[in-house]
Amino acid sequence: MKTINKINISGAEVYPLIEGGKGINGTDGKSSGYWAKEGGVGTISMVSPTEISLSGTIIPEIFHEKIRAKRHREMVEYAIRGGISQAQIAHDIAGNNGRIHINMLWEMADSEEVIIRVLEGAKGLIHGVTCGAGLPYNLGAIAAEHNVYYYPIISSARAMKILWKRSFRNYAQYLGGVVYEDPWLAGGHNGLSNAENPLQPERPYERLIELRKVLTELGLPNLPIIIAGGVWSLSDWQDYIDNPELGQVAFQFGTRPMITKESPISDAWKMLMMHAQKGDVILQKFSPTGFFSSAIKNNFLSNLIRRKKAEIPYSETATEEMTFLLPVSPIKAVYIRSEDKQHVEQQRHLGYSMIKETPDETLVFLTPDEWTNIQIQRAECVGCLSQCQFSGWSRANGTTGKLPDPRTYCIHHTLMDIGHGGDIQNNLAFAGHNVYRFATDPLYANNHIPSIHELFNAILNGK
Fold this sequence. Notes:
With 463 residues, the protein is of the alpha/beta class. It has helices at residues 29-37, 68-94, 111-121, 139-146, 157-166, 204-217, 267-274, 299-310, 341-349, 368-379, 411-419, 452-460, and strands at residues 7-9, 12-14, 17-19, 41-45, 51-52, 58-59, 99-105, 128-132, 149-154, 178-181, 188-190, 225-228, 249-253, 281-284, 292-296, 312-313, 322-329, 332-337, 354-357, 362-366.
């Protein structure tokens, strides 16, 4: 195997091995601190990070305000305090080893404020900021103001061109690298564009070659490309290391570090991943962000798939096609196709008696308990996204002005629950498409959960 040499990342010579940031409680100060201690780049998730008190106890995220906009402000303050406390934990563990980055979902509401105030409150403890799920135009300016490096997450060379021309060219000296995240292999939210087919994966090599060409055209021939999505073992990537066509590369590990002693996720979630089979991870578009995302097909995801498959079109008025009048509430009826009458009765017979409209002029079928839970979660919305298809929340206007979509879900509720020990079957379980490799990876034989030290050494040795 080719030797993996240290490179300069965020102002220090480190191994080009990066811990993927992930979402709520996917990484924290402990996991990122131990990753950096090994000489790599640890990454703390800034998506609702858990605040730890000076005595070492968890401060739970409890909301007291009755108005959604005020609950949103509570959420922002929790995230800032949590981010600062996790950065301190990471720094204390890592010492002067490696680098510590933070990762933010750009489409989080007030993501910029969270990044800025965490950088201010944890000054000197954080060396870089990674950002994806959207086009983070202001990321360069924020990094420059706080003297840290920034790393946009993109899935195509085209996205990099747009970011560079719009903003990044003004902050080139702080651009530490660009994260290419394979949209067909990565876990969590994926950057598939409308021009790409989710069912037709493209080889990363050609897309990376195109990205390197674009970076060279922009005057950035030596900028590190951080390969993410589907990265499991360096032995799989030998043709990418020391490749003159690709130039300097690093590797981001998202799924594999989730099963380590230091990983903050629950043992139940670790075991779910440990025994996943090939094909268990589904690329789908149920996220309230509107992005594609990849997660393990458990009860939660299976029910969303069922709901989507069962939907039918409707019309507010009678048409040549829509002729049958269907009551959907005590005060409202809509028109459906006459051939769909039997389908409606079948759904009711199966217990899906609540018929609800979607923004796309379709009807979905829910159980009474499902509809009650949706109503409760919408009422408890904390405004976590800049705009949300599930609740209709918009950070800009308070509402998107669109009908909330019952085909999606409250992302804050489900990720907060599974991220802190909740039900692994009835919550969203994000994972990369290589999760099935745990079952045959010798490092995890007999349900062994390695330490980050064990995993890091195995990666360095191509295992």
